[in-house]
């Protein structure tokens, strides 16, 4: 019995080491694309990733990311390519007036903390596509606004 346990222990230790190496490599890939994890750019890209996940599938998509091993059960990203692509999609979908980063652009009248129904109605009437982008940036569904 002891003879069987030793190889298993060695295999487990090797698997843990491989997992840690993969997590370090992934972190390095993200840092090379997004900069220091404490930087505003890194934080903005994380936010873009989350916005894209919420818009493109929400909890179901997040479950797929976990079950496929892209993100492990400790919330470590194991496959950076998909996460980088989702962050880019999020940036493309939600960077309207820099709503994620808060730089420039002003307030989003569809966001809970700056809701303004008069502005909402004017944007919906005058520029429906811009309204859709702002609504998505606020984490809401444009269909709620009949768009």
List keywords for this structure.
single chain; 147 residues; mainly alpha; 2 domains; 6 helices; elongated
| Share in β-strands | under 5%
Q: Note the main sheet.
A: none
Mean pLDDT across every amino acid position = 84
> What class would the helix/strand composition place it in?
mainly alpha
Q: How do the SSEs run, as a string of H and E?
A: HHHHHH
State Rg: 21 Å
Q: Would you identify the regions where 5 or more consecutive residues have pLDDT less than 50? A: 97-104
Q: Residue share in helices?
A: 55-70%
Shape: elongated
Distance between the termini: 66 Å
Total number of beta strands: 0
The total tally of domains equals: 2
The count of helical stretches stands at 6
Structural commentary:
By secondary structure, this protein is mainly alpha-helical. It folds into two domains: 90 residues, no CATH class; 53 residues, no CATH class. It has six helices and no strands. The radius of gyration is 21 Å and the shape is elongated. The relative contact order is 0.10. About 5% of the residues have low confidence.
How is the secondary structure organized here?
Layout: H1 2-34, H2 40-56, H3 58-67, H4 80-94, H5 117-126, H6 128-137
Helix pairs in contact: 2-3, 2-4, 5-6
């Amino acid at each position: 019995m002891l003879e069987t346990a030793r190889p298993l222990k060695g295999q487990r230790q090797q698997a843990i080491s491989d997992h840690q190496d993969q997590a370090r490599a992934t972190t390095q890939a993200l840092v090379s694309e997004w900069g220091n994890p404490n930087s505003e750019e890194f934080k903005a890209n994380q936010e873009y990733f989350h916005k894209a996940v919420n818009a493109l599938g929400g909890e179901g998509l997040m479950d797929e990311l976990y079950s496929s091993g892209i993100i492990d059960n400790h919330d470590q990203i194991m496959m950076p390519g998909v996460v980088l692509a989702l962050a880019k999609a999020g940036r493309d979908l939600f960077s309207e007036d820099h709503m994620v980063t808060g730089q420039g652009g002003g307030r989003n009248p569809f966001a809970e903390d700056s809701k303004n129904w008069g502005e909402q109605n004017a944007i919906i009437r005058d520029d429906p596509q811009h309204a859709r982008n702002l609504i998505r940036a606020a984490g809401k569904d444009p269909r709620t606004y009949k768009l």
